[in-house]
Amino acid sequence: MTADERMVVFGKRVREVRKSKGISQERLAEMAGIDRSYMGNIERGEKNITLKKAYEICDALDVEIQDLV
Questions:
Q1: Which of 6, 14, 35, 51 is the most buried (most CB within 10 A)?
Q2: Environment class of residue 10 by beta-carbon count within 10 Å: exposed (0-12), middle (13-18) or buried (19+)?
Q3: Rg of the chain over all Cα atoms, to the nearest angstrom
Q4: One digit per residue, pLDDT tens: the chain, 69 residues?
Q5: What is the pTM of this model?
């Protein structure tokens, strides 16, 4: 799996978990301290985010990082 494919998989998992918890993309972005449009880029696998940002998303979703990769 290439790095780009991993970013897409991560983004899809973020979206799946967010939706399963009934959280809007805008709300998740706010909870994680991320701009809403940037969160959209993450969910589409268009941004190669930092590990710190990945953990902030995990904290906002109340999941472990292995749940998103």
A1: 14
A2: buried
A3: 11
A4: 676 999 999 999 999 999 999 999 999 999 999 999 999 999 999 999 999 999 999 999 999 999 998
A5: 0.92
Give residues with Cβ within 8 angstroms of 59, minimum separation 6: 32
The pair of structure tokens assigned to 6 is 């991993």
Residue 22, classed as helix, strand or coil, is coil
Looking at residue 8, its pLDDT comes to: 96
Measured CA to CA, the distance from residue 62 to residue 69 in angstroms comes to: 15
Alpha-helical runs (H) found in the chain: 3-20, 25-32, 36-43, 51-61
